[in-house]
Amino acid sequence: MSNIPPKAVVLLSGGLDSATVLAIARQQGFETFALSIDYGQRHRFELEAARRVCQSLGAKQHRVFQIDLRQFGGSALTADIAVPKDRSDAQLHSGIPITYVPARNTIFLSLALGWAEVLGAFDLFIGVNAVDYSGYPDCRPEFIQAFAEVARLGTKAGAERTGRFVIHSPLISLSKAEIIRRGVALGVDYGLTTSCYDPDSAGRPCGHCDSCQLRRKGFAEAGRVDPLPYRD
Question: Which of 24, 74, 117, 152 is the most buried (most CB within 10 A)?
């Protein structure tokens, strides 16, 4: 019996959720290959956080892929559009916010799938969440299931039936508090992560964008202190 661990490609933004997913993949015995995307996001500081997380959690490799989604715009994260601040709970859970980046997870999973084919990996991990999130359509279970079918139909391994790609989304039905508790149990240092959509030049989170609000609420409900130094 082979003792070689299976390989997995983990999409890693440098945020709370993806750091937890990397720890989960490691706990499940995968040799982890982390992929971060520099897509022209205003919060590029997250890429530095991703590097720190990879070093802390022992990823086998960490690649940063560059693709400029600012060419399309259409989002407060990739265009000159103000990031919404201090939205109410009702606003956070209704409609699709302007921070949604068109087709982002479709693009990211496609890139991860391409690398996985080269690596001979059949497991992809992504930190999407359909409970405490901002209403993004590409964070839903239906989307993950549909992309698994795309991977089956659109790859050499799928066509030749030499392997089946599995899209792991272990956080999809967890609350933010549950995610934090899981990560703490796995030894994730959340002080290395960042979640803010609009950090300052030093990387300090604003504390008021949707992502900051959801993070702070999660730490409060988990009974934990968020280690990040918020500007406020």
Answer: 24
